[in-house]
Amino acid sequence: MFLVTGATGDIGRRVVRLLRESDKQVRAFVRLSSHYGELEHRGAELFIGDLRFERDIKKACQGVRYIISTHGSDGDALALDYRANIELIDQAKVNGVEHFVFISVLGADRGYEDAPVFKAKREVEKYLVSSGLNYTILRPAGLASNLLPLAERFRETGIYVLIGDAKNRTSIVSTDDLAKIAVNSVSVIGARNQIFPVGGPSILTREDIPRTFSRIFNKEPVIINAPLFLVDGFRGALGLINPQAQKSLGTFRTLLANEFFCKTEEITNLEAIFTFPLEPLESFLKRYLSI
Ligand SMILES: NC(=O)c1ccc[n+]([C@@H]2O[C@H](COP(=O)([O-])OP(=O)(O)OC[C@H]3O[C@@H](n4cnc5c(N)ncnc54)[C@H](OP(=O)(O)O)[C@@H]3O)[C@@H](O)[C@H]2O)c1
């Protein structure tokens, strides 16, 4: 039995889909408020709960052999990115779990002090590595599925808003490839007890994204390049009324202000270990936008 957290999310639902396609037993951890119809339809067992509650995590882990942690944090990094994963790891030990796959983030090890999600991910990574469990830690760059709503907006308006340095590099990864890597991590020997940066096959600059949209839709892009200090100004003002939200925005700012790309040799290594070629961004977008 696989336990998948974040099972309704972009990565999680693809993980559940892949597992069910190969007839694996899956327990999908979902909230009552989530859209979980597809998971049920695919034959996953639903566990309805909330990752903020230890008792729910404890129950969900009973009798599972593998855990794939893909949940996000809704702005509460301490409760969800940190505590929920620590509890999942503890319960994995109690239940004799054979392999724990953790979705971290590229740059988790860079010590970004202002980014609660990055800090939480790094602490969980350390805890998992020293837990004695078999593990695979995946550190993805940006997910291609995040771009789908932006591409739809571009299709209608031709506008793309880019905040910060347009020359910053990124390695957007196909969300389907990431899900496949997560699932295969439990069986591929070379993935055992490893930490992998996960990106797409090529290094892009952030301005390559509207250019890609432009090629797909055959439309001249109107790129609105907003400076980062606008985010800082907004953040400062927000801090006056909601200090917690101001802190959460630190992760967003970190993502905008830095480069998140994988080196060519890291991608070559990933392809060699998981034995499939990673999908270029343009191909991913065309598949989902039916072009
Ligand atoms: N998006 C990126 O570009 C990116 C890049 C690097 C790493 N990551 C990491 O990848 C992971 C997944 O990202 P994603 O974009 O697939 O996330 P997502 O689509 O936002 O999904 C988040 C999932 O977490 C679930 N969740 C949130 N709070 C919960 C709670 N209290 N109890 C139970 N479930 C809860 C959500 O359930 P509901 O359906 O109920 O909301 C949803 O299934 C995250 O750990 C993220 O940090 C993402």
SSE topology:
Layout: E1 2-5, H1 10-21, E2 26-30, H2 37-41, E3 45-48, H3 54-60, E4 66-69, H4 77-94, E5 99-103, H5 116-129, E6 135-140, H6 148-157, E7 159-163, E8 169-170, H7 175-184, E9 194-198, E10 204-205, H8 208-217, E11 222-226, H9 228-241, H10 243-257, H11 264-274, H12 281-288
Parallel strand pairs: 1-2, 1-4, 2-3, 4-5, 5-6, 6-9, 7-11
Antiparallel strand pairs: 8-10
Bound molecules: NADP nicotinamide-adenine-dinucleotide phosphate.
Annotation keywords:
single chain, 291 residues, alpha/beta, Rossmann fold, two-stranded parallel ribbon, 11 strands, globular, binds NADP nicotinamide-adenine-dinucleotide phosphate, Oxidoreductase, NAD(P)-bd_dom_sf, photosystem ii
